[in-house]
Amino acid sequence: MQKASNYNYLSRSKCYEAAGVDDREYFFEIKKSMKSIGFKESDENKICILLCSILELGNIEFDDSVHKENESKPCEIKNKKIMEKVAKNLQIEEPEL
Questions:
Q1: Cα dist from 1 to 19, 65, 85, whole Å
Q2: d(Cα 40, Cα 31) in Å, to the nearest integer?
Q3: Which terminal residue of the chain, N or C, has fewer Cβ atoms less than 10 Å from its own Cβ?
């Protein structure tokens, strides 16, 4: 995972810290809570992977120059490395995304 400022979904507000809030502490509190209600560590990891993948998907940029109105040509993805990374993290084939 990267810094919050590297993710479009997290960087729009330009607020990365809140006074009196320790994100690291809250993260471990959430993990502890998941464990207490019966989540397996593998499930916790899957949730983290899914959340990271969602953040990565928010950084995808599209090129619509090939798309014309009333045509079936889709937009193209400019930064395909992100798609490759997300597909790998989710253990699926890229076209499935």
A1: 23, 31, 12
A2: 10
A3: N
Any bridge partners for residue 77, and if so which?
A: 62
Contact 74, 60 (CB under 8 A): no
Give the other-Cβ count within 10 Å of 67's Cβ: 13
Of 54, 75, 65, 42, the residue nearest 8 (C-alpha): 54
pTM attached to this predicted model: 0.81
The length of the chain is 97
CB atoms within 10 A of CB 86: 21
**Nearest 5°: phi and psi at 78?**
-75, -45
Contacts 24+ apart (CB under 8 A), 2-6: 6/59
pLDDT tens, residue by residue, 33-91: 999 999 999 999 999 999 999 999 999 998 887 767 667 777 888 999 999 999 999 99
Please state, in angstroms and rounded to a whole number, the distance separating the CA atoms of residues 71 and 89: 33
